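Sequence in, structure out. First:
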Amino acid sequence: MNKPIKQLAIIGPTASGKSDLAIKIAQKIDAYILSIDSLSIYKEIDIVSAKPSKEELSQVKHFGINVLNPDDYFSVDVFIDIYKDVKDLCEKEGKNLIIVGGTSFYLKSLLHGLSNLPIIDAKIQAKVKKDLEDLQSCYDLLVSIDSVYMKNISQNDSYRIEKALLIYEASSLSPTEWFKQNPPKPIIEKLDIYNIDVDRDILRDRISKRSHKMLSMGLIDEVSYLEQKYTRLPNSMGSIGIVEVLDYLDGKITQDEMLELISIHTAQLAKRQQTFNRTQFENITSAKLEELERLLT
Protein backbone atom coordinates (compact mmCIF):
# COMPACT_ATOMS: atom_id res chain seq x y z
CA MET A 1 0.00 0.00 0.00
CA ASN A 2 1.31 3.43 -0.99
CA LYS A 3 2.21 5.79 1.83
CA PRO A 4 0.00 8.92 2.09
CA ILE A 5 1.76 12.01 0.78
CA LYS A 6 1.84 15.55 2.09
CA GLN A 7 0.21 18.06 -0.25
CA LEU A 8 0.16 21.84 -0.07
CA ALA A 9 -0.64 24.70 -2.44
CA ILE A 10 1.10 28.03 -3.00
CA ILE A 11 -0.97 30.64 -4.79
CA GLY A 12 -0.67 34.35 -5.40
CA PRO A 13 -0.85 36.94 -8.16
CA THR A 14 1.45 36.90 -11.17
CA ALA A 15 5.04 38.05 -10.43
CA SER A 16 4.67 37.42 -6.69
CA GLY A 17 7.53 34.91 -6.37
CA LYS A 18 5.54 31.66 -6.24
CA SER A 19 7.88 29.57 -8.37
CA ASP A 20 11.05 30.38 -6.40
CA LEU A 21 9.32 29.69 -3.08
CA ALA A 22 7.88 26.39 -4.36
CA ILE A 23 11.32 25.17 -5.45
CA LYS A 24 12.86 26.02 -2.05
CA ILE A 25 10.12 24.18 -0.18
CA ALA A 26 10.13 21.22 -2.59
CA GLN A 27 13.85 20.72 -2.01
CA LYS A 28 13.30 20.78 1.74
CA ILE A 29 10.32 18.38 1.92
CA ASP A 30 11.30 16.12 -1.02
CA ALA A 31 8.38 17.10 -3.23
CA TYR A 32 7.42 17.28 -6.87
CA ILE A 33 5.79 20.45 -8.20
CA LEU A 34 2.52 20.63 -10.14
CA SER A 35 2.01 23.91 -11.98
CA ILE A 36 -1.47 25.43 -12.13
CA ASP A 37 -0.86 27.99 -14.83
CA SER A 38 -3.10 28.29 -17.87
CA LEU A 39 -0.19 29.25 -20.17
CA SER A 40 2.81 27.30 -18.85
CA ILE A 41 1.03 24.07 -19.78
CA TYR A 42 1.72 24.89 -23.43
CA LYS A 43 4.95 24.03 -25.21
CA GLU A 44 6.70 26.90 -27.04
CA ILE A 45 4.88 29.63 -25.07
CA ASP A 46 7.92 30.23 -22.90
CA ILE A 47 8.60 33.95 -22.56
CA VAL A 48 4.96 35.07 -22.49
CA SER A 49 4.08 32.56 -19.77
CA ALA A 50 7.17 33.40 -17.67
CA LYS A 51 7.47 29.68 -16.97
CA PRO A 52 10.38 28.49 -14.83
CA SER A 53 13.76 28.39 -16.58
CA LYS A 54 15.40 25.13 -17.69
CA GLU A 55 17.72 25.45 -14.71
CA GLU A 56 14.79 25.81 -12.30
CA LEU A 57 12.94 22.92 -13.94
CA SER A 58 16.04 20.76 -13.50
CA GLN A 59 16.26 21.47 -9.75
CA VAL A 60 12.89 19.89 -8.95
CA LYS A 61 10.69 17.65 -11.07
CA HIS A 62 7.81 19.76 -12.44
CA PHE A 63 4.49 18.65 -13.94
CA GLY A 64 1.80 20.59 -15.78
CA ILE A 65 4.45 22.45 -17.83
CA ASN A 66 5.12 21.89 -21.56
CA VAL A 67 2.34 19.30 -21.81
CA LEU A 68 0.23 20.52 -24.74
CA ASN A 69 0.70 22.27 -28.07
CA PRO A 70 -0.73 25.82 -28.21
CA ASP A 71 -3.57 24.67 -30.48
CA ASP A 72 -4.55 21.68 -28.31
CA TYR A 73 -7.79 21.77 -26.33
CA PHE A 74 -7.33 22.51 -22.64
CA SER A 75 -9.77 22.94 -19.80
CA VAL A 76 -10.01 22.20 -16.10
CA ASP A 77 -10.96 18.55 -16.69
CA VAL A 78 -7.65 18.02 -18.51
CA PHE A 79 -5.83 19.56 -15.54
CA ILE A 80 -7.65 17.31 -13.08
CA ASP A 81 -6.51 14.24 -15.05
CA ILE A 82 -2.92 15.54 -14.87
CA TYR A 83 -3.27 16.04 -11.10
CA LYS A 84 -4.53 12.47 -10.58
CA ASP A 85 -1.59 11.03 -12.56
CA VAL A 86 0.94 13.17 -10.64
CA LYS A 87 -0.57 12.23 -7.27
CA ASP A 88 -0.39 8.53 -8.16
CA LEU A 89 3.26 8.96 -9.18
CA CYS A 90 4.10 10.80 -5.93
CA GLU A 91 2.52 8.01 -3.89
CA LYS A 92 4.37 5.38 -5.89
CA GLU A 93 7.74 7.15 -5.57
CA GLY A 94 7.30 8.38 -2.00
CA LYS A 95 7.33 12.07 -2.90
CA ASN A 96 5.28 14.95 -1.49
CA LEU A 97 3.45 17.37 -3.79
CA ILE A 98 3.38 21.15 -4.05
CA ILE A 99 0.68 22.69 -6.24
CA VAL A 100 1.71 26.17 -7.36
CA GLY A 101 0.51 28.79 -9.80
CA GLY A 102 -1.68 31.74 -10.59
CA THR A 103 -4.72 30.01 -12.10
CA SER A 104 -6.41 29.35 -8.76
CA PHE A 105 -9.66 28.33 -10.44
CA TYR A 106 -8.00 24.98 -11.18
CA LEU A 107 -7.18 24.59 -7.50
CA LYS A 108 -10.74 25.39 -6.53
CA SER A 109 -11.92 22.74 -9.01
CA LEU A 110 -9.73 20.15 -7.26
CA LEU A 111 -11.31 21.05 -3.92
CA HIS A 112 -14.88 21.09 -5.25
CA GLY A 113 -14.59 18.48 -8.00
CA LEU A 114 -16.37 18.08 -11.33
CA SER A 115 -19.60 16.25 -12.03
CA ASN A 116 -19.41 12.90 -13.80
CA LEU A 117 -20.72 12.80 -17.35
CA PRO A 118 -23.20 10.19 -18.63
CA ILE A 119 -21.95 7.17 -20.56
CA ILE A 120 -21.60 8.28 -24.18
CA ASP A 121 -21.40 5.42 -26.67
CA ALA A 122 -20.16 5.52 -30.27
CA LYS A 123 -23.68 5.76 -31.69
CA ILE A 124 -24.44 8.93 -29.69
CA GLN A 125 -21.04 10.41 -30.58
CA ALA A 126 -21.69 9.81 -34.28
CA LYS A 127 -25.17 11.36 -34.10
CA VAL A 128 -23.92 14.46 -32.28
CA LYS A 129 -21.01 14.84 -34.69
CA LYS A 130 -23.45 14.82 -37.63
CA ASP A 131 -25.84 17.22 -35.86
CA LEU A 132 -22.97 19.64 -35.22
CA GLU A 133 -22.57 20.18 -38.94
CA ASP A 134 -25.38 22.71 -38.36
CA LEU A 135 -24.00 24.37 -35.24
CA GLN A 136 -26.68 27.06 -35.08
CA SER A 137 -29.51 24.52 -35.05
CA CYS A 138 -27.79 22.63 -32.22
CA TYR A 139 -27.40 25.86 -30.28
CA ASP A 140 -31.06 26.79 -30.81
CA LEU A 141 -32.19 23.33 -29.71
CA LEU A 142 -30.15 23.54 -26.51
CA VAL A 143 -31.47 27.02 -25.73
CA SER A 144 -35.03 25.70 -26.07
CA ILE A 145 -34.20 22.78 -23.76
CA ASP A 146 -32.07 24.61 -21.18
CA SER A 147 -31.91 28.38 -21.52
CA VAL A 148 -30.33 28.74 -18.06
CA TYR A 149 -27.33 26.55 -18.90
CA MET A 150 -26.88 28.07 -22.35
CA LYS A 151 -27.04 31.74 -21.34
CA ASN A 152 -23.26 31.90 -20.84
CA ILE A 153 -22.36 29.86 -23.94
CA SER A 154 -21.69 31.61 -27.23
CA GLN A 155 -23.43 30.32 -30.33
CA ASN A 156 -19.96 29.84 -31.85
CA ASP A 157 -18.54 27.85 -28.92
CA SER A 158 -18.54 24.48 -30.67
CA TYR A 159 -16.78 22.63 -27.82
CA ARG A 160 -19.28 23.59 -25.10
CA ILE A 161 -22.24 23.15 -27.44
CA GLU A 162 -21.01 19.63 -28.26
CA LYS A 163 -20.55 18.83 -24.55
CA ALA A 164 -24.08 20.02 -23.70
CA LEU A 165 -25.56 18.10 -26.63
CA LEU A 166 -23.74 14.89 -25.66
CA ILE A 167 -25.13 15.17 -22.12
CA TYR A 168 -28.65 15.66 -23.44
CA GLU A 169 -28.49 12.84 -26.02
CA ALA A 170 -26.89 10.37 -23.57
CA SER A 171 -29.09 11.10 -20.56
CA SER A 172 -32.32 12.58 -22.03
CA LEU A 173 -31.87 15.27 -19.38
CA SER A 174 -31.05 18.93 -19.78
CA PRO A 175 -27.48 19.76 -18.70
CA THR A 176 -28.86 21.71 -15.71
CA GLU A 177 -30.91 18.71 -14.56
CA TRP A 178 -28.03 16.29 -15.17
CA PHE A 179 -25.62 18.32 -13.01
CA LYS A 180 -28.34 18.72 -10.36
CA GLN A 181 -28.72 14.94 -10.16
CA ASN A 182 -24.94 14.35 -10.37
CA PRO A 183 -23.29 16.90 -8.07
CA PRO A 184 -19.49 17.16 -8.08
CA LYS A 185 -17.36 15.33 -5.52
CA PRO A 186 -14.12 16.83 -4.12
CA ILE A 187 -10.91 15.40 -5.56
CA ILE A 188 -8.81 16.71 -2.67
CA GLU A 189 -10.59 16.57 0.68
CA LYS A 190 -8.22 18.78 2.65
CA LEU A 191 -5.33 20.97 1.58
CA ASP A 192 -3.12 23.56 3.25
CA ILE A 193 -3.16 26.66 1.04
CA TYR A 194 -0.61 29.47 1.33
CA ASN A 195 -1.31 32.75 -0.44
CA ILE A 196 1.43 35.31 -1.17
CA ASP A 197 0.20 38.75 -0.15
CA VAL A 198 1.93 41.50 -2.15
CA ASP A 199 1.55 45.27 -1.88
CA ARG A 200 -0.05 46.58 -5.07
CA ASP A 201 2.64 49.20 -5.78
CA ILE A 202 5.43 46.65 -5.36
CA LEU A 203 3.56 44.25 -7.64
CA ARG A 204 3.07 46.90 -10.34
CA ASP A 205 6.80 47.64 -10.29
CA ARG A 206 7.66 43.93 -10.58
CA ILE A 207 5.22 43.49 -13.44
CA SER A 208 6.67 46.46 -15.33
CA LYS A 209 10.23 45.14 -14.90
CA ARG A 210 9.14 41.67 -16.00
CA SER A 211 7.46 43.07 -19.13
CA HIS A 212 10.72 44.80 -20.14
CA LYS A 213 12.68 41.62 -19.37
CA MET A 214 10.33 39.60 -21.59
CA LEU A 215 11.02 42.03 -24.45
CA SER A 216 14.79 41.66 -24.04
CA MET A 217 14.44 37.87 -23.98
CA GLY A 218 12.80 37.81 -27.42
CA LEU A 219 9.08 38.28 -26.76
CA ILE A 220 8.28 39.66 -30.22
CA ASP A 221 10.13 36.85 -32.01
CA GLU A 222 8.32 34.24 -29.88
CA VAL A 223 4.87 35.63 -30.67
CA SER A 224 5.74 35.98 -34.39
CA TYR A 225 6.80 32.33 -34.44
CA LEU A 226 3.64 31.21 -32.61
CA GLU A 227 1.43 33.13 -35.04
CA GLN A 228 3.16 31.65 -38.07
CA LYS A 229 2.95 28.10 -36.74
CA TYR A 230 -0.47 28.11 -35.07
CA THR A 231 -2.31 31.17 -36.52
CA ARG A 232 -4.29 33.47 -34.21
CA LEU A 233 -7.21 31.08 -33.78
CA PRO A 234 -6.25 28.97 -30.71
CA ASN A 235 -7.50 30.23 -27.34
CA SER A 236 -3.91 30.43 -26.12
CA MET A 237 -3.22 33.14 -28.72
CA GLY A 238 -5.68 35.43 -26.94
CA SER A 239 -3.51 35.65 -23.83
CA ILE A 240 -2.05 38.75 -22.23
CA GLY A 241 1.35 39.39 -23.77
CA ILE A 242 0.40 37.79 -27.07
CA VAL A 243 -2.53 40.06 -27.98
CA GLU A 244 -0.52 43.23 -27.37
CA VAL A 245 2.43 42.00 -29.44
CA LEU A 246 0.08 41.09 -32.30
CA ASP A 247 -1.33 44.63 -32.18
CA TYR A 248 2.24 45.95 -32.36
CA LEU A 249 3.02 43.68 -35.32
CA ASP A 250 -0.15 44.95 -37.02
CA GLY A 251 1.12 48.53 -36.62
CA LYS A 252 -1.74 49.51 -34.31
CA ILE A 253 0.52 50.52 -31.39
CA THR A 254 4.16 51.43 -30.80
CA GLN A 255 6.60 49.21 -28.92
CA ASP A 256 6.43 51.49 -25.88
CA GLU A 257 2.62 51.34 -25.95
CA MET A 258 2.81 47.55 -26.29
CA LEU A 259 4.94 47.28 -23.14
CA GLU A 260 2.68 49.67 -21.25
CA LEU A 261 -0.43 47.72 -22.21
CA ILE A 262 1.15 44.39 -21.24
CA SER A 263 1.98 45.86 -17.83
CA ILE A 264 -1.51 47.38 -17.38
CA HIS A 265 -3.35 44.21 -18.42
CA THR A 266 -1.08 42.01 -16.29
CA ALA A 267 -1.67 44.27 -13.26
CA GLN A 268 -5.43 44.02 -13.85
CA LEU A 269 -5.11 40.23 -13.98
CA ALA A 270 -3.10 40.28 -10.74
CA LYS A 271 -5.84 42.27 -9.04
CA ARG A 272 -8.46 39.72 -10.16
CA GLN A 273 -6.24 36.89 -8.92
CA GLN A 274 -5.85 38.55 -5.52
CA THR A 275 -9.61 39.01 -5.18
CA PHE A 276 -10.27 35.39 -6.19
CA ASN A 277 -7.69 34.02 -3.78
CA ARG A 278 -9.03 36.14 -0.94
CA THR A 279 -12.68 35.17 -1.43
CA GLN A 280 -12.78 31.62 -2.80
CA PHE A 281 -10.84 29.55 -0.29
CA GLU A 282 -11.33 28.57 3.35
CA ASN A 283 -8.50 27.78 5.77
CA ILE A 284 -6.01 29.79 3.75
CA THR A 285 -2.83 31.32 5.18
CA SER A 286 -2.04 34.72 3.61
CA ALA A 287 1.26 36.46 4.35
CA LYS A 288 4.13 38.31 2.71
CA LEU A 289 6.57 36.19 0.70
CA GLU A 290 9.31 36.44 3.35
CA GLU A 291 6.92 35.36 6.12
CA LEU A 292 5.71 32.36 4.14
CA GLU A 293 9.28 31.38 3.39
CA ARG A 294 10.12 31.43 7.11
CA LEU A 295 6.94 29.51 7.89
CA LEU A 296 7.44 26.81 5.28
CA THR A 297 11.22 26.39 5.18
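Second:
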Amino acid sequence: MIPRPGPRNLITDIPGLTVGNAADPVLKSGVTVLLGDQPMVAGVHVMGGAPGTRETDLLAPDKMVQAVDALVLSGGSAFGLAAAQGVMDALYEMGRGFAVGPARVPIVPGAILFDLLNGGTKDWAENPYPALGRAALAGCRTDFALGTEGAGTGATVAGLKGGLGSASLVLASGVTVGALVAVNAVGSVTMGDTPHFWAAPFEIDAEFGGLGPAPTTPPLFPAPIKRLGEATTIAIVATDAALTKPQATRLATAAHDGLARAIVPAHTPHDGDLVFAASTCQRPLPDGGALELGHAAALCLSRAVARAVYLAQPTPDDWLPAWSLKFSHSG
Protein backbone atom coordinates (compact mmCIF):
# COMPACT_ATOMS: atom_id res chain seq x y z
CA MET A 1 0.00 0.00 0.00
CA ILE A 2 1.35 3.40 -1.02
CA PRO A 3 0.70 6.04 1.66
CA ARG A 4 -2.12 8.35 0.63
CA PRO A 5 -3.75 11.39 2.23
CA GLY A 6 -6.65 10.78 4.56
CA PRO A 7 -10.20 11.70 3.50
CA ARG A 8 -9.81 15.38 4.43
CA ASN A 9 -6.06 15.76 3.79
CA LEU A 10 -5.98 17.51 7.16
CA ILE A 11 -4.40 16.80 10.52
CA THR A 12 -7.91 15.97 11.73
CA ASP A 13 -7.83 12.76 9.71
CA ILE A 14 -6.35 11.49 12.98
CA PRO A 15 -9.38 10.42 15.05
CA GLY A 16 -9.80 12.36 18.26
CA LEU A 17 -8.28 15.62 16.99
CA THR A 18 -10.11 18.83 16.09
CA VAL A 19 -8.85 22.24 14.99
CA GLY A 20 -10.34 25.68 15.53
CA ASN A 21 -9.46 28.99 13.89
CA ALA A 22 -10.28 32.52 14.97
CA ALA A 23 -9.15 35.76 13.37
CA ASP A 24 -9.71 39.49 13.32
CA PRO A 25 -9.55 40.88 9.76
CA VAL A 26 -8.88 44.43 10.99
CA LEU A 27 -6.06 43.19 13.21
CA LYS A 28 -4.85 40.91 10.37
CA SER A 29 -3.97 38.25 12.89
CA GLY A 30 -5.45 35.17 14.49
CA VAL A 31 -5.14 31.96 16.47
CA THR A 32 -5.31 28.26 15.69
CA VAL A 33 -5.95 25.56 18.33
CA LEU A 34 -5.38 21.81 18.07
CA LEU A 35 -7.57 20.03 20.64
CA GLY A 36 -7.48 16.40 21.64
CA ASP A 37 -10.61 14.58 22.79
CA GLN A 38 -8.27 13.18 25.43
CA PRO A 39 -4.90 14.48 26.65
CA MET A 40 -2.14 13.98 24.07
CA VAL A 41 1.45 12.88 24.55
CA ALA A 42 3.54 15.71 23.12
CA GLY A 43 7.07 16.85 22.34
CA VAL A 44 8.68 19.89 20.75
CA HIS A 45 11.81 20.86 18.89
CA VAL A 46 13.01 24.39 18.06
CA MET A 47 15.48 25.04 15.25
CA GLY A 48 14.96 28.74 14.55
CA GLY A 49 16.93 31.50 16.23
CA ALA A 50 14.01 33.67 17.38
CA PRO A 51 11.28 31.54 18.98
CA GLY A 52 8.41 32.69 21.16
CA THR A 53 6.88 29.95 23.31
CA ARG A 54 4.79 29.07 26.34
CA GLU A 55 4.95 25.85 28.42
CA THR A 56 7.48 24.15 26.14
CA ASP A 57 9.89 23.23 28.95
CA LEU A 58 7.38 20.75 30.37
CA LEU A 59 7.43 18.84 27.07
CA ALA A 60 11.01 17.70 27.66
CA PRO A 61 11.17 13.90 28.04
CA ASP A 62 12.34 14.10 31.67
CA LYS A 63 9.58 16.41 32.90
CA MET A 64 6.68 15.20 35.05
CA VAL A 65 3.59 16.07 33.00
CA GLN A 66 3.06 13.38 30.38
CA ALA A 67 0.24 14.83 28.26
CA VAL A 68 -1.27 18.11 27.07
CA ASP A 69 -4.88 19.16 26.53
CA ALA A 70 -4.34 21.46 23.55
CA LEU A 71 -1.65 23.13 21.45
CA VAL A 72 -1.88 26.76 20.32
CA LEU A 73 -0.40 28.53 17.30
CA SER A 74 -0.87 32.29 17.32
CA GLY A 75 0.02 35.51 15.58
CA GLY A 76 0.81 38.63 17.55
CA SER A 77 4.44 38.04 18.48
CA ALA A 78 4.84 37.93 22.29
CA PHE A 79 1.37 39.43 22.73
CA GLY A 80 -0.01 36.27 21.10
CA LEU A 81 1.30 34.05 23.88
CA ALA A 82 -1.78 35.23 25.81
CA ALA A 83 -3.96 33.24 23.38
CA ALA A 84 -2.99 30.09 25.29
CA GLN A 85 -4.31 31.69 28.49
CA GLY A 86 -7.71 32.13 26.87
CA VAL A 87 -7.66 28.48 25.81
CA MET A 88 -6.52 27.39 29.26
CA ASP A 89 -9.29 29.34 30.99
CA ALA A 90 -11.95 27.86 28.71
CA LEU A 91 -10.63 24.31 29.20
CA TYR A 92 -10.68 24.84 32.95
CA GLU A 93 -14.33 25.83 32.73
CA MET A 94 -14.92 22.57 30.82
CA GLY A 95 -13.33 20.55 33.63
CA ARG A 96 -10.26 19.63 31.59
CA GLY A 97 -6.74 19.59 32.98
CA PHE A 98 -3.93 17.79 34.79
CA ALA A 99 -5.20 16.54 38.13
CA VAL A 100 -3.36 17.68 41.25
CA GLY A 101 -5.54 16.35 44.05
CA PRO A 102 -8.93 18.02 43.55
CA ALA A 103 -7.42 20.80 41.39
CA ARG A 104 -7.34 20.74 37.58
CA VAL A 105 -4.66 22.54 35.58
CA PRO A 106 -5.13 22.53 31.78
CA ILE A 107 -1.81 22.05 30.00
CA VAL A 108 -1.68 24.29 26.92
CA PRO A 109 1.72 24.84 25.28
CA GLY A 110 1.84 27.46 22.55
CA ALA A 111 4.06 29.22 20.04
CA ILE A 112 3.79 32.53 18.22
CA LEU A 113 4.78 34.17 14.95
CA PHE A 114 5.44 37.83 14.19
CA ASP A 115 2.70 39.59 12.19
CA LEU A 116 2.72 43.07 13.77
CA LEU A 117 3.87 44.85 10.58
CA ASN A 118 1.47 43.51 7.95
CA GLY A 119 -0.98 46.40 7.41
CA GLY A 120 -3.37 45.44 10.18
CA THR A 121 -4.52 47.78 12.94
CA LYS A 122 -2.60 46.98 16.12
CA ASP A 123 -3.58 49.90 18.39
CA TRP A 124 -5.62 47.77 20.79
CA ALA A 125 -6.47 49.01 24.28
CA GLU A 126 -6.69 45.43 25.57
CA ASN A 127 -4.71 42.43 24.34
CA PRO A 128 -7.08 40.68 21.88
CA TYR A 129 -5.39 37.30 21.93
CA PRO A 130 -7.02 35.68 24.99
CA ALA A 131 -10.43 36.24 23.38
CA LEU A 132 -9.16 34.93 20.04
CA GLY A 133 -7.85 31.84 21.82
CA ARG A 134 -11.24 31.22 23.40
CA ALA A 135 -12.98 31.69 20.06
CA ALA A 136 -10.61 29.30 18.30
CA LEU A 137 -11.19 26.63 20.94
CA ALA A 138 -14.95 27.08 20.68
CA GLY A 139 -14.66 26.58 16.91
CA CYS A 140 -12.74 23.31 17.03
CA ARG A 141 -14.05 20.94 14.33
CA THR A 142 -12.78 18.11 12.14
CA ASP A 143 -13.19 20.29 9.03
CA PHE A 144 -11.47 23.66 8.99
CA ALA A 145 -10.32 26.20 6.43
CA LEU A 146 -6.76 26.77 5.20
CA GLY A 147 -4.93 29.75 3.76
CA THR A 148 -5.69 33.15 5.28
CA GLU A 149 -7.14 31.63 8.42
CA GLY A 150 -6.35 31.36 12.12
CA ALA A 151 -2.69 31.83 12.99
CA GLY A 152 -1.91 32.22 9.29
CA THR A 153 -4.21 35.22 8.81
CA GLY A 154 -1.44 37.83 8.80
CA ALA A 155 1.51 35.63 7.87
CA THR A 156 3.93 36.42 5.04
CA VAL A 157 6.88 34.78 3.30
CA ALA A 158 9.44 36.16 0.85
CA GLY A 159 7.37 38.07 -1.70
CA LEU A 160 3.99 36.51 -0.90
CA LYS A 161 1.31 36.11 1.74
CA GLY A 162 1.82 33.14 4.01
CA GLY A 163 -1.00 31.23 5.62
CA LEU A 164 -2.27 28.18 7.45
CA GLY A 165 -1.69 24.75 5.90
CA SER A 166 -2.39 21.12 6.69
CA ALA A 167 -1.88 17.68 5.12
CA SER A 168 -2.08 14.02 6.08
CA LEU A 169 -0.89 10.53 5.12
CA VAL A 170 -2.29 7.10 5.96
CA LEU A 171 0.53 4.56 6.11
CA ALA A 172 0.43 0.89 5.11
CA SER A 173 0.16 -0.05 8.79
CA GLY A 174 -3.05 2.00 9.07
CA VAL A 175 -1.30 4.64 11.18
CA THR A 176 -2.24 8.21 10.24
CA VAL A 177 0.18 11.14 10.31
CA GLY A 178 -0.78 14.78 9.84
CA ALA A 179 0.70 18.27 9.90
CA LEU A 180 -0.64 21.74 10.71
CA VAL A 181 1.48 24.83 10.05
CA ALA A 182 1.34 28.63 10.13
CA VAL A 183 3.87 29.79 7.53
CA ASN A 184 5.53 33.16 8.19
CA ALA A 185 9.08 32.71 6.95
CA VAL A 186 12.06 34.86 6.04
CA GLY A 187 12.64 32.44 3.18
CA SER A 188 10.78 31.68 -0.02
CA VAL A 189 8.18 28.95 -0.47
CA THR A 190 8.18 29.28 -4.27
CA MET A 191 11.17 28.76 -6.56
CA GLY A 192 12.54 32.17 -7.46
CA ASP A 193 10.03 34.44 -9.18
CA THR A 194 7.95 31.49 -10.39
CA PRO A 195 4.73 29.93 -9.13
CA HIS A 196 6.48 26.58 -8.58
CA PHE A 197 6.83 25.36 -5.01
CA TRP A 198 10.00 24.01 -3.43
CA ALA A 199 7.76 21.25 -2.05
CA ALA A 200 6.73 20.17 -5.59
CA PRO A 201 8.47 16.75 -5.46
CA PHE A 202 6.24 15.75 -2.56
CA GLU A 203 2.89 16.97 -3.92
CA ILE A 204 -0.05 14.55 -4.09
CA ASP A 205 -3.07 14.97 -6.37
CA ALA A 206 -2.29 18.56 -7.40
CA GLU A 207 -3.01 19.71 -3.85
CA PHE A 208 -1.11 22.95 -4.47
CA GLY A 209 -1.60 23.43 -8.18
CA GLY A 210 0.21 20.47 -9.73
CA LEU A 211 2.80 22.70 -11.42
CA GLY A 212 5.81 20.56 -10.60
CA PRO A 213 9.33 21.96 -10.11
CA ALA A 214 10.49 25.12 -11.86
CA PRO A 215 11.82 24.44 -15.39
CA THR A 216 15.01 26.41 -14.69
CA THR A 217 17.24 26.53 -11.64
CA PRO A 218 15.97 29.25 -9.28
CA PRO A 219 18.23 31.43 -7.13
CA LEU A 220 19.20 29.66 -3.92
CA PHE A 221 19.82 32.88 -2.00
CA PRO A 222 16.65 34.99 -2.16
CA ALA A 223 17.09 38.54 -0.89
CA PRO A 224 15.77 38.74 2.69
CA ILE A 225 12.89 41.17 3.11
CA LYS A 226 12.29 40.77 6.85
CA ARG A 227 14.32 42.06 9.72
CA LEU A 228 15.50 40.20 12.81
CA GLY A 229 12.48 38.94 14.76
CA GLU A 230 9.87 39.48 12.04
CA ALA A 231 9.41 35.87 10.99
CA THR A 232 8.78 32.33 12.32
CA THR A 233 7.06 29.23 10.98
CA ILE A 234 5.29 27.25 13.70
CA ALA A 235 3.88 23.77 13.19
CA ILE A 236 2.34 20.69 14.74
CA VAL A 237 2.74 17.12 13.50
CA ALA A 238 0.53 14.44 14.97
CA THR A 239 -0.21 10.74 14.77
CA ASP A 240 -2.50 8.11 16.22
CA ALA A 241 0.47 5.78 16.80
CA ALA A 242 1.29 5.38 20.49
CA LEU A 243 4.41 7.38 21.37
CA THR A 244 6.34 8.15 24.52
CA LYS A 245 7.51 11.69 25.20
CA PRO A 246 11.03 10.89 23.91
CA GLN A 247 9.52 9.43 20.73
CA ALA A 248 7.30 12.49 20.29
CA THR A 249 10.36 14.71 20.66
CA ARG A 250 12.15 12.68 17.98
CA LEU A 251 9.10 12.98 15.70
CA ALA A 252 9.13 16.77 16.09
CA THR A 253 12.84 16.82 15.30
CA ALA A 254 12.47 14.69 12.17
CA ALA A 255 9.56 16.82 10.95
CA HIS A 256 11.83 19.86 10.67
CA ASP A 257 13.18 18.28 7.47
CA GLY A 258 9.79 19.13 6.00
CA LEU A 259 10.33 22.82 6.67
CA ALA A 260 13.80 22.73 5.14
CA ARG A 261 12.49 21.09 1.96
CA ALA A 262 9.64 23.57 1.53
CA ILE A 263 11.17 26.90 2.65
CA VAL A 264 14.49 28.27 1.35
CA PRO A 265 16.25 29.19 3.57
CA ALA A 266 14.71 27.73 6.75
CA HIS A 267 15.81 27.75 10.39
CA THR A 268 17.49 31.14 10.10
CA PRO A 269 18.53 33.43 12.97
CA HIS A 270 15.55 35.62 11.99
CA ASP A 271 13.01 32.75 12.25
CA GLY A 272 11.76 31.05 15.39
CA ASP A 273 10.96 27.81 13.56
CA LEU A 274 9.33 25.32 15.92
CA VAL A 275 7.53 21.99 15.57
CA PHE A 276 5.30 20.40 18.19
CA ALA A 277 4.53 16.68 17.92
CA ALA A 278 1.41 15.07 19.40
CA SER A 279 0.16 11.50 19.73
CA THR A 280 -3.37 10.33 20.52
CA CYS A 281 -1.93 6.86 21.32
CA GLN A 282 -4.84 5.03 19.64
CA ARG A 283 -2.76 2.51 17.65
CA PRO A 284 0.33 0.52 18.54
CA LEU A 285 3.53 1.79 16.97
CA PRO A 286 4.57 -0.88 14.43
CA ASP A 287 7.99 -2.49 14.80
CA GLY A 288 10.48 -0.15 13.19
CA GLY A 289 7.68 2.35 12.70
CA ALA A 290 9.47 5.33 14.21
CA LEU A 291 11.61 5.72 11.08
CA GLU A 292 8.61 5.70 8.74
CA LEU A 293 6.68 7.97 11.08
CA GLY A 294 9.37 10.66 11.05
CA HIS A 295 9.67 10.54 7.27
CA ALA A 296 5.89 10.76 6.86
CA ALA A 297 5.70 13.73 9.25
CA ALA A 298 8.34 15.60 7.23
CA LEU A 299 6.51 14.87 3.97
CA CYS A 300 3.20 16.07 5.42
CA LEU A 301 4.82 19.23 6.74
CA SER A 302 6.38 20.11 3.35
CA ARG A 303 3.02 19.68 1.64
CA ALA A 304 1.23 21.66 4.35
CA VAL A 305 3.64 24.59 3.91
CA ALA A 306 2.93 24.77 0.17
CA ARG A 307 -0.83 24.43 0.71
CA ALA A 308 -0.74 27.32 3.19
CA VAL A 309 0.69 29.72 0.61
CA TYR A 310 -1.25 28.28 -2.34
CA LEU A 311 -4.58 28.76 -0.53
CA ALA A 312 -3.91 32.22 0.91
CA GLN A 313 -6.60 34.70 -0.06
CA PRO A 314 -6.24 38.39 -1.00
CA THR A 315 -7.65 40.80 1.60
CA PRO A 316 -7.84 44.61 1.79
CA ASP A 317 -4.62 46.50 2.58
CA ASP A 318 -2.34 43.50 2.00
CA TRP A 319 1.32 44.43 1.88
CA LEU A 320 2.15 41.38 -0.24
CA PRO A 321 0.11 39.55 -2.89
CA ALA A 322 -1.50 36.17 -2.38
CA TRP A 323 -0.11 33.38 -4.59
CA SER A 324 -3.45 33.16 -6.40
CA LEU A 325 -3.31 36.87 -7.27
CA LYS A 326 0.35 37.03 -8.29
CA PHE A 327 0.23 33.85 -10.35
CA SER A 328 -3.40 33.83 -11.52
CA HIS A 329 -2.22 33.03 -15.06
CA SER A 330 -0.73 29.76 -13.80
CA GLY A 331 -4.10 28.12 -13.11
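Remark: The longest strand covers residues 29-46.
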